[in-house]
Specification:
Elements (H helix, E strand, L loop, with lengths): L9 E2 L2 E15 L5 E13 L4 H12 L18 E4 L2 E4 L14 E4 L6 E3 L2 E2 L2 H9 L19 H5 L18 H5 L6 H11 L7 H8 L13 H5 L6 H14 L3
Parallel strand pairs: 2-6
Antiparallel strand pairs: 1-2, 2-3, 4-5, 4-6, 7-8
Helix pairs in contact: 2-5, 5-6, 5-8
Length: 252
C-alpha cells in the first residue's frame, strides 16, 4: 500500500509520497500483431506533480520506450488526452494528489481510435470528421475592406464552442463513437456549432446538411459523457441539442 500524502516525508518544505503508475502498453510487431499488457512503475512524487510529470519520470528514468504525446503542458494544445483512472482527462491538468495515491493510478489510451503505440492513438479519423464540417468562415461577395463586426450578443451565441482544443476527449468518451467509427462525434458537431451560429458566416445551411447524414447529429444519445469529459468546460451536449434544433427549425 502506498503512503498517504499526510504521512509522506518532506524534501525541504514540499511533501513527497510514493505512487504506483499502471500504464497500458501496446507494442506493435513487424508481422502486424501487437503485445498488449500493463506495466507498473513505482515513483516518488510531489503532490503538485501532474500525471504528465509522472509519465516523464518513467520515460526519462525507467523506461525510455514509453510512448505518449504532449506539447504545451498547459492544457492548451490538447495533445496529451488519455484515460486516467477510467476517465478521459488531460495528463498535464490532472494532479496526482487529486487522485487516490494509495491505489495504482491507471493510464491508458483514449477509446474508439486505433492505438499506434502505448498511449498514442491514430487521430486521423477524428480530424477527418472535423475537416468534413468545414471548420472555417464561409462568406460570399467581395473581400471586405474592414473587419466584419459583431455585437457582444452575436458573439455570445457561439462563444462557448470556440474553446475547443481538439483533444478528442469528448468524442472518445462517447459510447456511440466507440461502437460506430463512422459517427461524426461530439467534437466535430461542436466545431460546426461554432460556425453555424456565427452571424458573419454564410455556410450554416451546408453544415447542417452534412450533419443531417445518418452518421451525423442524430446519432447522439444525450448521455452527457462528452460534457463531463471536456477539459475546457464546454457544454457539449447543449451545443449538440442546439444544432439538432437548428436542423429542424432552420433558425440559426
Amino acid at each position: 500500500m502506498s503512503a498517504t500524502i499526510e504521512d509522506a516525508p518532506k524534501v525541504g518544505s514540499v511533501p513527497t509520497f510514493t505512487v504506483t503508475l499502471r500504464v497500458a502498453r501496446h507494442l506493435p510487431a513487424d508481422d502486424g500483431t501487437a503485445d498488449t499488457r500493463w506495466d507498473e512503475f513505482q515513483l516518488q512524487v510531489h503532490g503538485t506533480d501532474r500525471v504528465l510529470d509522472a509519465l516523464h519520470m518513467v520515460k526519462w528514468d525507467q523506461d525510455g520506450s514509453l510512448t505518449f504525446r504532449r506539447s504545451c503542458a498547459h492544457g492548451i494544445c490538447g495533445s496529451d488526452a488519455m484515460r486516467i483512472n477510467g476517465r478521459n482527462r488531460l495528463a498535464c491538468k490532472t494532479l496526482l494528489k487529486d487522485l487516490d495515491p494509495s491505489k495504482p493510478i491507471t493510464v491508458e489510451p483514449i477509446k474508439g481510435l486505433p492505438v499506434i503505440k502505448d498511449l498514442v492513438v491514430d487521430m486521423e479519423p477524428f480530424f477527418a470528421s472535423y475537416r468534413e464540417i468545414m471548420p472555417f468562415l464561409i462568406t460570399t461577395g467581395n473581400e471586405p475592406t474592414k473587419e466584419r463586426l459583431q455585437s457582444a450578443e452575436q458573439r455570445a451565441r457561439f462563444d462557448d464552442t470556440t474553446k475547443c482544443i481538439l483533444c478528442a476527449s469528448c468524442t472518445s468518451s462517447c459510447p456511440v463513437f466507440w461502437t460506430d467509427g463512422q459517427y461524426f462525434g461530439p467534437a466535430a458537431i461542436v466545431n460546426a456549432h461554432r460556425f453555424i451560429f456565427d452571424s458573419r458566416d454564410e455556410g450554416g445551411a451546408q453544415r447542417l446538411e452534412i450533419l443531417n447524414d445518418k452518421e451525423g447529429v442524430w446519432r447522439c444519445r444525450t448521455t452527457f459523457n462528452c460534457t463531463e469529459a471536456c477539459p475546457r468546460g464546454i457544454e457539449v451536449t447543449k451545443a449538440i441539442q442546439e444544432v439538432k434544433r437548428a436542423m429542424i427549425t432552420r433558425a440559426f
